[in-house]
């Protein structure tokens, strides 16, 4: 989350009126940024991770865990801690030579008042030593956060709080159903009180003319009633017009029903941002990492409980997607288009719909045939010199309305600024984000990988961060090709939600990732990709790349033969006579560079976690939590996760963190607690 500007936020009808102005100004700002930054070269290879925490208050007497709405207090305590600021704190891993002296982690607010975000104090560099410093830095962040909380408060890295939306689950407690969220389950006080957040929630609700609607299939255990009707739903409220939603069928049978942004944006994730050496490399990374999004979502699955019930999905993604889905009935295709411009297939929080690399291997058939683009704004970008592919990407993001507009920002356009551009860009929550350099800062083109779920331990979070960083090195070093048609990635994202997808499902993936010589008469030398081999500043103009006009079959062969369905194990560890596997590719990359044995061994521990997750020797967080609940003596087989189970779950989570720390001291043998647990599998 970026800086939080203050100002007078417009309510929905007024914000809607100013939407075109914001978009037009945003496009002007983007063009200015792009013109200046497209020639940037040789930026350092930097990267950074973001860890999000739930803060809970644990009541040992009552044996009860509640969310603690203490974000502001913790951030204030951190800011006031002069001793901390002055202390020459270094990342404990300095014996590795990582140059992070004095770079204290930084803490940021998030949507939920029970959330915290922490990042390294400065981005990590290209060196392998930095990869080995991440875990200790994450531990340091957790320690610092804890030290600025009350004795009974703890930063926990679970994606969602299992009892969010139930009575008596917040501290302090507030009654539900305030004017902004109008939720029958959670109070407005659940959200960060900065005007941006209640406005975001209220304007999304106003734009769609009803509350957001989340229905997650309940996990049908042996004693779960069938049909299942969410017993927490209250059909008798008459405080807000939106209370009619449930009477009009918003809560679906056999589902856990939720009705507010907090149920999605209150989830914690693990994000990794990379700085590329130039725009061209950034565009390549954006495309090549995109097909990995759903794979990493399934592999990091950690979300099996909502509102006190086990659910039949394993990940958070679609819940967030629905929690901020501002589409109207017309845009959703429920009513004929009268007032709105387009039917829009995806929520503004969704998997990506564009590829942007100027790469001869990018076939028109890979593009999303259902892509909606704001053609007028695209024309402005193209007139301003931007190549078709990139203009299409941004003009697709700009089909959305700005949700939070500050009236002060509408007085005058700051042509050197980025506020209007960022307004649209930062409320397009796709699984990859292409981040242009912020004006006035010495920062390059960045790509953010956003699909992963937060993991219970810092060891796991570090392992996934390290793995993704090494994958980017392998992609660039071996010129790997993971392209599949975008609709296949969209489909994979759904597959990633299925319970135990990591073991039981198959995902579309490219069979051969290795580069081939580009055919001499590549159809991609059509006007579409003019300028491919020229500097990015010379990007050409082109015709629409929606895959319907013109194929590249004569040169490349049928697209469908390029990819097939694979298990996550095959994708990560490789298949015999098939896909080589992401881990073996990373290993080959490590073989090709000069690293000492100790570093290599320590990296191997992280890669081993990924390998074992993919082949099932280690469980996902989702499976572990689900089985923990199901084996708990107080669980009645009816999908209900009660207070005592949640209390014991949090105890176990904290124990795993500690045990891992001790294990690490004894020599990098991780997660045996999990492995022991796995032995109990039925
Ligand atoms: P957002 O919340 O908008 O995604 P943040 O400001 O929280 O962005 O930062 C995301 C991550 O990017 C952090 O880990 C930060 O260290 C890292 N980062 C900051 N600057 C750079 C850079 N120039 N290159 C790569 N990563 C960076
Ligand atoms: Mg965040
Ligand atoms: Mg952030
Ligand atoms: Mg981020």
UniProtKB/TrEMBL annotation:
Biased composition (Polar residues): 539-551
Residue ranges, compositional bias (Basic and acidic residues): 672-682
Pathway: Sulfur metabolism; glutathione biosynthesis; glutathione from L-cysteine and L-glutamate: step 1/2
Enzyme's top EC category: ligase
Any one biological process term the GO annotation gives: glutathione biosynthetic process
UniProt entry tagged with the keyword Metal-binding: no
A GO CC term attached to the entry: glutamate-cysteine ligase complex
Entry EC number(s): 6.3.2.2
Any one GO molecular function term: ATP binding
Catalyses which reaction(s): L-cysteine + L-glutamate + ATP = gamma-L-glutamyl-L-cysteine + ADP + phosphate + H(+)
Keywords: ATP-binding, Glutathione biosynthesis, Ligase, Nucleotide-binding
Record region (Disordered): 513-551, 662-682
Annotated family: Belongs to the glutamate--cysteine ligase type 3 family.
Name of the protein in question: Glutamate--cysteine ligase
Source organism of the structure: Cladophialophora chaetospira
Recorded name of the encoding gene: GSH1
